[in-house]
Specification:
Chain lengths: 331, 485
């Protein structure tokens, strides 16, 4: 029995406790109890949702033993594409923003497809492929925006991240649409990963690619799907980022790829493949979100936030290593 | 009984090496056919041809009377031929069920029918002998024996008619071996043809109905077990002459430089002495050599090098004058994409030096070892296997090591390079003014080599080092007998 609890503690339950611990830490330290207020919790959730959504896609990539460094650039490209469609339109109405979002997400998915094709058909290493497309997509975003921000009028897209708490018209939603979208995607991918052939093949490819090939798993097709889906979720994250910024900013989401990878790794993903869960990734994204909001409300300087995040990643990986070493000793 | 699988005059060459020289093999339904031979005799090449991993140069195969030309392992599996390799091929992060049905899952529109798969998995797991384990267990939580059973379950689920077991007992305990044999008998009575590859002759005697011995890519003899005795098998395995490849040496023994004191045996290695270690692959020879060099911890026993015991790291071993040559030249022994100079000088490099100085240091060894290369700044991967091995050996000479630990020093090396390596071994163990004689330990699977170059030979058997005797006391036959019993 004790053993069982211990295993759980080392898994997602343990991560949840760490999340709660960090939250309580700030709840106690931030003056006047401002941190634990419902409005603040909501804003943490909303701010985490961009990273969380992109990290859902990145979980698939990392589970299949790949890596995607182009996430931040894809988010920026999506933001710019949406901005470009809505540029100079005074009253966009309902349908034009729908079209804009569609365009943005399609472009992002194509970007993912490009990564997938380069990895599988050209046989290049994922790290190098996405390192190069990270530059290419970022450059494309800058070019499309002519290296300046594209200002747009307010549309329903911006409503996705508006607070619900204390707003009588919207309180029926319980949480802002951005958070609902993230949860919906998380559940969908969880089901995909657990119950679909494609999902199990993704884990198999990450766990032992040779075996997967020997058993007739279409390794290349599986990998293509992985990067395609990673692009799709980066696109959705880009939509949320646009909602937050309300303009097409080509320089946005710099370094998000690292935050996204950090969320997956804190959530138990292994860069060697085969490991990583959507639940863990969501907790990982929330831990990063709580840290960012907490540090800024403590008025700690930026550099300190960065150092703290780095330490959390190192600790998460260390805990995982210890857990694995124990597993080996068991054999 | 009807013939299930027939291989006829199968030939396969790799470059100039003739791995299979017209091998014929026929496996009857409902029997166990043992395939026996020394390391490198061609067993694994033959099985790779059978499983579609290699395509034969010539010859034909028939499965149940129909022509059989496997394109790849997947095709072979679909045709009814499954292999259980020594290195198991399972995905550690997936469950037993998922591994059994990997690539052939049942489902509708991409969503898996988990219950159905689980039900089928339990059925084949039972036939494979994997009882009392949940089909939802992750592979990484299973023991080696259980993993092997999962592989067998996978083969049974794919409806295999020929099951190839490659050294299935090498990582099993005695109890697990007995259980495996019980299962093999069940599969046999179910009409499956089993090809059983093993070094352990007593296992072959116990389980096989037929036995084929191969040597140097040819069938020495194929016959029912009743026609074999253990002695005859050993004779068939080693049937060849020791040539003039091994030069005579007039070295003489000096003081002790390395002492190994184990729980059951101890060895004193002296200057001017070549000690051979024979044994099968997987018997622990490499691990023993690595422990002497502090590449892995010594669990039980003590290593003393020139009066100092308890060396902790390979770096300390190098600094005490030990040198190690890995059996795996491509992965451990050499940095293939770097130059000859870099590879030779890696272990002993001045703090600051010009590239030309380093090249000059490396060049010293090009002639004595007759390394054929355009320049010492050529990449090692551009050299032939034999020259690569000479570069690996040159590192020990450059380092001025006088205790050499050589693991398979002539594996995959042509005759010319072999002969040169033996000459160097002789020169350095004889010593000369200013250079005391070296002491050498050689691990080799090739028995004529050990008999040709060593002064004493020890045999490693299942992790135990035993019977250290002078060369003159050994023959290939007795060495092989000691190794397989």
């Amino acid at each position: 029995m004790n053993q069982k609890i211990l295993t759980l503690l080392k898994g997602d339950l343990g991560r949840l406790l760490v999340l709660v611990g960090i939250f309580l830490f700030f709840a106690i330290l931030v003056p006047e109890g401002r941190f634990a207020r419902i409005g603040n919790v909501e804003s943490i959730l909303v701010q985490s949702s961009v990273v969380a959504l992109a990290a859902i896609g990145a979980t698939l990539v990392i589970v299949s033993a790949g890596i995607d460094l182009s996430v931040g650039s894809v988010i920026a490209l999506t933001v710019v594409v949406i901005g470009k469609v809505l540029e100079d339109v005074e009253s966009p109405g309902l349908l034009l923003p729908v079209f804009a979002v569609l365009m943005g997400v399609v472009v992002a998915t194509v970007c993912g497809g490009v990564n997938g094709v380069m990895v599988t058909r050209l046989g290049m290493v994922p790290f190098v492929v996405t390192l190069s497309t990270m530059q290419i997509f970022r450059g494309a975003a800058s070019g499309l925006a002519r290296e300046s921000n594209i200002y747009t009028s307010r549309t329903w897209i911006n409503g996705m991240m508006d607070p619900v708490a204390g707003n009588a018209d919207r309180s029926w939603m319980l949480m802002p649409p951005a958070v609902w979208l993230t949860l919906f995607c998380a559940v969908a991918v969880m089901l995909l990963l657990r119950y679909s052939r494609l999902g199990r093949h993704m884990v198999a490819v990450g766990s032992n690619e040779e075996t997967a090939r020997l058993c007739g798993v279409p390794v290349k097709r599986v990998k293509c799907w992985v990067y395609l889906l990673a692009g799709l979720f980066a696109g959705l994250a880009g939509m949320l980022q646009f909602s937050y910024l309300n303009m097409g900013a080509p320089t946005t989401a710099q370094g998000y790829e690292l935050r996204v990878i950090a969320a997956v790794v804190i959530g138990g993903g292994s860069l060697r493949g085969g490991e990583g869960t959507i639940a863990g990734t969501l907790i990982g994204a929330l831990i990063i979100g709580v840290l960012f909001v907490g540090c800024s409300q403590m008025r700690w300087e930026n550099w300190l936030q960065t150092v703290v995040t780095g330490c959390i990643i190192a600790i998460a990986v260390l805990v995982d290593r210890l857990r694995h070493r124990q597993g080996e000793r068991h054999h | 009984m009807s013939v299930l699988l027939e291989m006829n005059q199968v030939e396969k060459s790799f470059g100039a090496t003739r791995a299979l020289d017209g091998i014929s093999l026929s496996v009857r339904a409902g029997t166990v056919h043992a395939l026996v031979g020394e390391n490198g005799a061609g067993k694994s090449t033959l099985m790779k041809v059978l499983s579609g991993a290699h395509v034969a140069d010539a010859g034909s195969m028939r499965l149940e009377g129909e022509p059989y030309h496997p394109r790849n392992p997947l095709h072979a599996r679909a045709s009814g031929i499954s292999m259980i390799y020594q290195e198991l091929s399972l995905a550690p992060h997936l469950t037993i069920t998922e591994n059994i049905f990997l690539g052939v899952e049942t489902g509708t529109r991409g969503w898996l029918k988990l219950k159905e798969m689980r039900r089928k998995a339990v059925a084949v797991m039972e036939r494979a002998g994997l009882n009392g384990v949940s089909p939802e267990t992750l592979i990484r939580d299973l023991s080696m024996a259980q993993c092997q059973q999962v592989e067998v379950a996978r083969a049974l689920a794919s409806g295999c008619r020929v099951l190839v077991l490659d050294e299935p007992t090498s990582s099993l305990t005695k109890t697990d071996v007995d259980l495996l044999f019980e299962r093999i008998r069940e599969w046999r009575s179910a009409g499956i043809g089993i090809v059983y590859i093993s070094h352990f002759l007593e296992e072959v005697e116990e389980i096989a109905d037929d036995c084929t011995v191969i040597c140097d890519g040819r069938v020495v003899k194929s016959a029912p077990m009743s026609a074999w005795t253990r002695e005859r098998m050993i004779d068939a395995m080693v049937g060849r002459d020791v040539g003039e490849l091994y030069p005579a040496s007039n070295r003489s023994v000096g003081e002790t430089v390395l002492t190994w004191t184990g729980p059951e045996t101890s060895i004193e290695l002296k200057r001017g002495e070549v000690l051979g270690i024979a044994g099968l692959i997987g018997s622990g020879r490499t691990e023993f050599l690595q422990s002497l060099f502090a590449l892995r911890p010594v669990l039980d026993g003590d290593v003393t090098v020139k009066g100092v015991s308890g060396l902790d790291t390979p770096a300390e071993s190098w600094s005490r004058g030990m040198g190690f040559l890995s059996e795996d030249r491509k992965r451990e022994g050499l940095a293939l994409t770097r130059t000859i100079t870099e590879n030779i000088t890696l272990s002993k490099l001045p703090c600051w030096s010009k590239p030309s100085t380093r090249d000059a240091l490396a060049k010293l060894w090009v002639d004595p070892l007759s390394i054929k290369c355009a320049h010492v700044s050529s990449r090692v991967e551009s050299l032939s296997g034999g020259n690569q091995q000479k570069v690996a050996l040159a590192r020990l000479l450059h380092h001025d090591a006088d205790v050499w630990l050589l693991d398979e020093p002539t594996r995959g090396v042509d005759v010319g390079a072999k002969s040169r390596i033996y000459q160097v071994l002789n020169q350095w163990t004889e010593g000369k003014p200013g250079r005391p004689p070296c002491a050498v330990i050689v691990v080799s699977s090739y028995l004529p080599e050990l008999l040709g170059i060593c002064d004493r030979i020890a045999v490693m058997n299942r992790g135990q080092l035993r019977s250290i005797r002078p060369r003159s006391d050994w023959t290939e036959h007795t060495l092989m007998k000691e190794a397989v019993e």
